[in-house]
Amino acid sequence: MNKKIMIFFLVVITILIVGGIAGTWYIQNNKYKTESQKIDQEIYNAEQEIVKIEAMKDKNGYTPTDIVNNFMNEIKNGSSDKAKLYLATELQALDVLNLVGFSNELDKINIQEVTQEVVDKTATVNMKGYWPDESKTFQKNFILVQEEDIWKVKEIQTT
After folding, report:
1. Could you confirm whether domain 64-158 is CATH 3.40.50.10960?
2. Distance (Å, rounded) from C-alpha 47 to C-alpha 63?
3. pLDDT tens by residue, the chain, 159 residues
4. Could you give the 3-state DSSP secondary structure of residue 158?
5. Domain boundaries, the chain
6. Is the distance from CB of 130 to CB of 138 less than 8 angstroms?
7. Which of 135, 157, 130, 131 is nearest to 144 (CA)?
């Protein structure tokens, strides 16, 4: 009789162990599936953002924000002739410093935030910043259009 009881307990213990392993596997598998779905969604969202950014680029590979940053860097470096290359054709004859409307030392400008919004072939780039020796801040809106599939600054608004 002891043998039957012993065999019975061994079978029950084996069932419990196998059941525990199967249950643990099932739970871990569900967690993996859930995490995998979340990661897949994050990858999909990132890929969609990349597609949007790629769609904003001009034939030279620049986004509107790139153009405004390059334009401001040329101004900060004192290269008005190079800065004019980023302007729309009708603005290239104007004085760049007057067009931007800054009277302070441009090489000391600190840019805090740059955002962009693109609708078809027109973009608005908002730039916020300050001069380190002043508490005064500035905010500019750059309106860009595409000329021959290249982003160009068409208008600069002070807000």
Report:
1. no
2. 17
3. 688 888 888 888 999 898 889 888 888 888 888 898 999 999 999 998 888 877 788 888 899 999 999 998 888 888 888 989 999 989 888 888 778 877 666 767 788 888 899 888 899 999 988 877 767 788 889 999 998 889 999 998 887
4. strand
5. 1-56, 64-158
6. yes
7. 157
